[in-house]
Write a sequence for this structure.
């Protein structure tokens, strides 16, 4: 695989950006070599600046559920781009996308568009605090909610602890308002609510934790969280930036049949352009300015070009049978690879839900907590390199998940399965 052009571009980029990138994981620090600079994408494929072609399972880390350059998304963007890019005023497109979402989502009454998943979470946290009049929030170790100061925290010592900053620049006083407990620990969960419910504005969780491995929680655990929030008048905040419109149209809330109080969305909602959103029932959303005292604004919120991309993409996602077919094709890849690895005795398994999958290098029964993940990422690094050489692109971190898109046909998936077989044999055989 040639990398001459990508390496030259990366050398230049190091002069312009911290680490040569505009988002840390892109730097390839967790895998071998310098990052690939991507030139174009079409369908299930991407091409880098050296004209290497890859089957893409990163899908821009999730937004491209239809694949790259889908014709209906492309045409809708171009048609609306001809009218301008931004007005700083309401547009019909905002209404159209909101109606498309709300008419199919029984969990929220109103929505507010923003420009990223991080912004959606940040705004949702402010809403929870403003609505309840309480300051503390509960998060779960292993769930990532964007680079919001109050959520860039790790657990301190003890069963139920106040957070400690996990990033420079986050004041300790900010982190101290966040309580952190492990996932899949009913004792810690119950103790937290018993001790801190009077101060808790919300409990925020990825109902399908997919930013630090795929840490699938049992439905009973999520139901217990819902019950405790209801009992103690704490808002349940589902961060569905990844799972929203991915496992079902209304996300994990629909998949599990659990009703959150606040939800954040991102990625898929923008059709490949920067869009996020948060929503709740009408009573809670009335606290948002200009109706209420919780201020939130954005120059590019509801951007017409981004709205047009989201409308095109979600219209297709809303079609009957879309999510069932997504899951079928995901299993078409996952099941034979897992069978092959098991027959060969390789310490490898693909975890999956909906059209999400994750490469796990462990023989433990089921990884449900961050501290159960093997910190040695050497096996992932080796497999990532082997797959690249065979034309398969994954996100460059063993903690990132992969995605199947509508563009991953049965034929493409079967080709990828064969590449996985060969790569696994090279790394484990």
């Amino acid at each position: 695989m040639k990398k001459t052009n990508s390496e030259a571009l990366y050398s230049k980029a190091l002069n312009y950006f911290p680490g040569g990138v505009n988002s840390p994981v892109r730097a390839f620090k967790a895998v071998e070599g310098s990052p690939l600079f991507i030139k174009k994408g079409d369908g299930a494929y991407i091409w880098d600046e050296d004209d290497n072609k890859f089957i893409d399972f990163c899908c821009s880390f999730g937004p491209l559920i239809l694949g790259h350059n889908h014709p209906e998304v492309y045409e809708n963007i171009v048609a609306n781009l001809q009218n301008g890019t931004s007005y700083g005023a309401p547009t019909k497109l905002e209404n159209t996308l909101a109606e498309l979402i709300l008419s199919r989502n029984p969990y929220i009454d109103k929505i507010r568009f923003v420009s990223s998943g991080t912004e959606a979470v940040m705004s949702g946290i402010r809403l929870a605090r403003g609505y309840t009049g309480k300051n503390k929030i509960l998060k779960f170790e292993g769930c990532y909610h964007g680079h919001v100061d109050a959520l860039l925290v790790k657990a301190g010592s003890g069963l139920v602890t106040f957070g400690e900053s996990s990033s420079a620049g986050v004041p300790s006083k900010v982190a101290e308002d966040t309580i952190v407990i492990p996932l899949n620990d009913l004792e810690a969960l119950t103790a937290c609510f018993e001790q801190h419910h009077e101060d808790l504005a919300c409990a925020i969780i990825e109902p399908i934790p997919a930013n630090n491995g795929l840490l699938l929680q049992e439905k009973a655990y999520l139901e217990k969280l819902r019950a405790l929030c209801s009992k103690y008048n704490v808002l349940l905040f589902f961060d569905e930036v990844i799972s929203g419109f991915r496992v079902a149209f209304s996300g994990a809330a629909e998949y599990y049949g659990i009703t959150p109080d606040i939800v954040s969305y991102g990625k898929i909602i923008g059709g490949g352009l920067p869009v996020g959103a948060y929503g709740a029932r009408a009573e809670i959303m009335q606290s948002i300015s200009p109706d209420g005292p919780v201020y939130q604004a954005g120059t590019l919120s509801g951007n017409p070009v981004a709205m047009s991309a989201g409308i095109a993409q979600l219209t297709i996602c809303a079609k009957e049978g879309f999510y069932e077919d997504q899951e079928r094709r995901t299993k078409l890849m996952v099941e034979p690879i897992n069978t092959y690895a098991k027959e060969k005795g390789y310490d490898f398994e693909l975890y999956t839900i909906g059209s999400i999958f994750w490469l796990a290098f462990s023989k433990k029964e089921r990884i449900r907590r961050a501290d159960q993940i093997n910190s040695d990422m050497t096996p992932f690094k080796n497999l990532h390199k082997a797959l690249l050489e065979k034309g398969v692109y994954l996100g460059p971190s063993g903690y990132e998940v992969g995605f199947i898109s509508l563009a991953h046909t049965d034929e493409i998936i079967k080709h990828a399965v064969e590449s996985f077989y060969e790569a696994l044999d090279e790394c484990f055989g």
Observations:
- The CA atoms of residues 248 and 323 lie 6 Å apart.
- The domain at 4-69+320-428 is CATH 3.90.1150.10 (Aspartate Aminotransferase, domain 1).
- The first strand starts at residue 38 and ends at 42.
